[in-house]
Amino acid sequence: MKFNKEIIKKAHEMTKEIKNQYADVDYKTQFGLCLSYLLKNEEDMKMVELKGTEKQIKWAEKIRETMIKHIDFYKSNFNSAGALKKNYFFDFKEEIMSFMGKEKINTTEATESLNNIIDTAWDNLTKETSSKFFIEHREETTVELIKKFL
Questions:
Q1: What predicted TM-score, i.e. pTM, was given to this entire model?
Q2: Which of 12, 56, 103, 149 has a CB 3.0–4.6 Å from the CB of 121, allowing a cystine?
């Protein structure tokens, strides 16, 4: 995506929504993350067309967009958590061990594994075509969503 007025507007929209949900987020920092994300991921952001009634599709598109923002926010927080990364590892202990195929792993391996898990969930989320799916799972936590889309 080229740096232009449209991308700045989209980054501000994303940042405002995240700031509204997480009051302790620094706006400037989050804006920078959103802007960087949009610039790097234009091709990745192409999602499949949803199926369902017109009303379902319209509602599901909003839900899907929110889910993606939550997953992006989760990944951003995880990667900037420093020593607190262990809290994130706890949420995905079984998935990380299964992904790595080992019983013991170090922090670097766990970090790489969890980033891969989140990326896989993000990719699968963008490929989901059922409006009904998004509507039925709109109340799930970010952790539940990531696990569901593995």
A1: 0.68
A2: 149
